[in-house]
Amino acid sequence: NILVTCSNDYCIRLYDENTKTIIHTFDNNHSNRIFCVKFFNKILPFTIISGGWDKSVLVHDYRKSKKNNYF
Predict the structure, then answer these.
(1) Residue 20: what are its φ and ψ, rounded to 5°?
(2) Burial state string for 58-71 with b = 16 or more CB within 10 A and e = fewer than 16
(3) Which residues of the chain fall short of a pLDDT of 70?
(4) Which strand (E) or helix (H) includes residue 47?
(5) How far apart are CA 23 and CA 65, in angstroms?
(6) Model confidence over 25-43: pLDDT tens digits?
(7) Which residues make beta-bridge pairs with 25?
(8) Which of 12, 38, 54, 57 could tie 26 with a disulfide, CB 3.0–4.6 Å?
(9) Residue 65 to residue 41: CA distance in whole angstroms
(10) Which residues contact 68 (CB under 8 A, 6 or more apart)?
(11) Cβ–Cβ contacts within 10 Å for residue 25, how many?
(12) pLDDT for the residue 70
């Protein structure tokens, strides 16, 4: 199982719930605080969507550890 978090340091972190370790950190994507993050697996597998104070919504593929798109 994977847990996703966001914070005011502009980073999104993926954690392995079993080992309690960070799997990956997405940084340098948002230019301000991130206030929401959500898995979007039912429609797009391996997808995380994040929204931030920088007025952007970003789409991330956590298999590739990179941003796919933004709005």
Answers:
(1) 60, 35
(2) bebebeeeebeeee
(3) 65-71
(4) strand 47-52
(5) 10
(6) 988 789 999 999 998 888 8
(7) 13
(8) 12
(9) 15
(10) 47, 59, 60, 61
(11) 13
(12) 60
